[in-house]
Design brief:
six-stranded parallel sheet, alpha/beta, DNA-binding, 345 residues, homodimer, 12 strands, 43% helix
DNA sequence: GGACCAGATGTGACCGGTAACATAGCCATG
DNA sequence: CATGGCTATGTTACCGGTCACATCTGGTCC
């Protein structure tokens, strides 16, 4: 039978609907015999309790909302997977709003929809968030535990989770410097992404730490994080700074694109030019050469975000926002060569 | 104020709750003046309508459920993204249940939870579904529009969407044969995945079409789809069939792993051994050599699944299940060489 | 001027659960 | 044997919307 309700079950089992409710929720004090009768009725009627009604009455939805950029991006997908796993472990469902690149006001739409659905926590993983001064996000923070992922917006009351991009960039650059490289270029992601700016800062930190002075000609920004951008950026770099010996690319795809461009010009990696990436996507380890890169623990980011929300919901204290930085460790593989004082060509 | 209800708004605007409801839903026949007063009250009270209450009363949740294997798998993430985009276009939200590899009865749990949440449609994208004879899935199909993705279970009443794996495998193999290869090995995914079996069938079709007889020694199954498996499989193949000139790997990662293993033995790709993959993951195009592969349109799969559900919900006819196969076209790049009658070495 | 109609608004029930309290039956206890 | 307390179950209100229908107002028409 379709759409049996708790009262239908009650009638069939000749008890009150409240007793059925007790059975469903495994409550105390129901006779074994009554319980069996109720369970029998449930099975016969193919009764499935309504989470909707339950939510309305209990004021709990057991739902977390996550607004992210397009899930087809590997790293956000990882974060979603992490958040989902952690949420589920704690008995929450995750509803996702995946924002397509290009659409205008989607974040607001999603935020509103999630608020309407009475999510008990919100994870906002949208870099380049245009909601900074927006009342809607502040509103959300005021109502429910909110975690901002990889955002530079400082929203009092919200928790923040991010990769330590600056340190990652610094370590990558310092590593190149430690291999005696002196002309180290960098290919950055879009500079309206906070993570791109942080990695660039880290790059400068690394240079400074090695006593190398910065050179604007060695910084090549891209409009996206993709392969083609990396390819073109490398081409431009080779025009403007033909003597470079190393490139720190802010994503693995940028790095692979750059390597492709280098090869197209007959240069070898790492013998002629060393390359370091950022991300550690699955293929990096099997690429030829295996890519030395900074690993982003995005799954952990998602997990942590969900955990923070769970903790906050549990303690229900209106603590002020915390800030968490996850380390992005350098993974050393084979795309960097040591210069050993010998200049190239 | 937290948790204002429609009646709070009504009181404040000095109208009935029903008038507020009308304003919210943009209904006819409300005076401009009344509307303004209501909207003002809504703003002052920071009222956010409850989708939960609305769902209970209207019996509509505007929600689709999607059960998939781990979203961190690139291809399922693509499918999720596609489904999400299409669902949203039609005014639905997507709730996802991402099943971690290894856990036992998660599919059932998720299915039940989604039924409880009264999703209006269900997308089940779980290869190796253990729910074949399960009443729960049949139950779901009986209640709501259901689409099975990449599953070989034949469930009457459910729609099916899949990649035409067999044809993809056939085309990959036929292409190798057309380049004069005669000893063509294949590295398969886990053979309990329907897609792996279908690709293997396609491989055999391709051989047969070229008049090449099958050789069991040239078929190397793996326990997963990953790089390491590809590497090991290639090693085994080179032991058992040292004269092979081509490998059709059932995933790009398997292919890349195989290439790594070939290189480790000093063999060149494609000069010594040609390799074709399956998937077309983003790095395949930039790999060295650029990988010739069969592209899986997973995003389209997700979109189609959501569209089918939307259509069905709209027409509400209890049509019997349809079956859709999406073509997986061969993308020719640089990892296959033409033999031209010259045998290798 | 009364009947009629349409537009604007209000009333009460209902969706399917949960929560708080009420009640009935039973046993122990002094 | 009356009292009390515990257990099993029932009763009723309530969560926050929507829906069907009722009511009120003013204008039009004959």
């Amino acid at each position: 039978m379709k759409g049996a309700t708790i009262r239908d079950v009650a009638r069939r089992a000749r008890v009150s609907h409240q007793t059925v409710s007790r059975v469903i929720n495994g409550h105390d004090s129901v006779t074994a015999e009554t319980r069996d009768r109720v369970l029998g009725a449930i099975r016969e009627l193919e009764y499935v309790p309504s989470a909707v009604a339950r939510s309305l009455s209990s004021q709990r939805t057991h739902t977390l909302g996550m607004v992210t950029t397009d899930v087809s991006d590997h790293f956000f997908a990882e974060a979603v997977a992490g958040a989902e796993a952690e949420a589920r472990k704690r008995g929450y469902f995750l509803i996702i709003g995946s924002i397509e690149e290009g659409s205008e006001d989607d974040e607001r739409t999603y935020l509103r929809l999630m608020l309407e659905r009475r999510v008990e926590g919100l994870i906002v993983a949208v870099p380049r968030l245009r909601l900074a001064e927006d009342d809607l996000l502040a509103d959300a923070v005021a109502r429910i535990p909110t975690v901002l992922v990889a955002s530079d917006i400082d929203l009092p009351g919200a928790d923040h989770v991010d990769i330590d991009n600056r340190r990652g960039g610094q370590e990558a650059t310092a590593y190149l410097a430690a291999q005696k490289h002196r002309i180290i270029a960098t290919i950055t992601g879009p500079l309206d992404w906070p993570s791109a700016r942080a990695r660039l800062d880290g790059y400068r930190d690394g240079l400074r730490g090695a006593g190398i002075s910065a050179d604007r000609a060695l910084v090549e920004p891209c409009v996206d994080w993709g392969l083609d951008s990396g390819r073109r950026a490398a081409d431009r770099l080779l025009e403007s700074a033909p003597k470079l010996t190393a490139i720190f690319a802010q994503s693995d795809l940028l790095a692979l694109g750059a390597i492709a461009a280098l090869r197209a010009r007959g240069m070898r990696v790492p013998e002629d030019v060393s390359v370091v990436g950022f991300d550690d996507i699955p293929v990096s380890s099997v690429f030829d050469p295996p890519l030395t890169t900074v690993r982003q623990p995005m799954r952990e980011v998602g997990e942590l975000a969900a955990r923070l929300i769970g903790d906050r919901a549990a303690s229900s204290r209106k603590a002020k926002g915390t800030r968490h930085m996850l380390r992005a460790p350098l993974v050393i593989r084979g795309s960097v060569a040591r210069l050993d004082g010998v200049s190239r060509h």
